[in-house]
């Protein structure tokens, strides 16, 4: 399944470890930035996660000029416009995004406006619109799942038109991703579980979909191994900084993998379910992953079988006949989901979420067929196929 031609691109500097935050002033100074703005949300600030970032800057005599802490879970063009106005009024010269996917996407969009000019972020929507490098930009992720710190995309809602605007450009990539385990120590169990399953899905689809290549494979398999070896132990011991760092690194690795090889039908169904039923993205990934792998099975038997080594370890891999390893890999993912259900009640079926009606499945299936991720799925899916997968995932 290896492509004869492929491209791989990830210029983001990764600063990782238990003192990574303290390196932010050095990174800012290296780009001549002296007046950073922090973009985050109220939950991150209430959890005290800004304090080590602010302290690190103060100790280096670097002033945080402005802090915007009101990013909503589903950010909008109005929010982006407001933050850009504050950035300009305060004469900021750089951005530090501290948070999950919404805060990071919002910061990416703000960086477009303050770098390119104007107040209409919609004018920059699409691929290849942005032609120049943007202002210095750093990302401090507070979840271990989205991989947004190493992806060249952002999604912002136009609430008036009820559509989501996609932005794609290599210039959206931050100058550095700061991966520090202190930022995820306070994550609640269900968010730890859902975001890790998001990362696992990124890595699994990157490794089994048609855009895979040798370099993305290396990142994807390393991510799967780190999640498999650390997720359940972190669920039992949430303050395990070493385990938290492993999960955070896995998320970044999976982000690098899928941003170069793309994802598939799990994401198409997840995006549609999120839009119609407003389920969190990581939960959708966890729900659909085994069902889509079963649907794709005969098209991905070899790579999926290879993943068993990273999901279940060398002993299980060696003890499993080669022609049964793909099925064993799916079984390993199901066992992980069952364990997470026992530890934090992370739903395994759509019915268990309590937020999805069976009558909505047809609309989800129809919307999934229009999602760009489906183009990279190794097996073509028609409406009836998508409906069949959803019915299996229902209960």
TrEMBL record:
- One Pfam annotation reads ADH_Fe_C
What's in the keyword line of the UniProt record? Answer: NAD, Oxidoreductase
Instruction: Outline the extent of the Alcohol dehydrogenase iron-type/glycerol dehydrogenase GldA domain.
Output: 11-181
A single Gene Ontology molecular function, please? Answer: metal ion binding
Q: Where is the Fe-containing alcohol dehydrogenase-like C-terminal domain?
A: 192-394
- Which cofactors does it use? Fe cation
Concerning Gene3D superfamilies, the annotation shows: 3.40.50.1970, Dehydroquinate synthase-like - alpha domain (1.20.1090.10)
Q: Which InterPro entries match?
A: ADH_Fe/GldA, ADH_Fe_C, ADH_Fe_CS, Alcohol_dehydrogenase_Fe
Q: What is the similarity comment for this entry?
A: Belongs to the iron-containing alcohol dehydrogenase family.
- What name is this protein filed under? Alcohol dehydrogenase
| Species whose genome carries this gene | Marinobacter mobilis
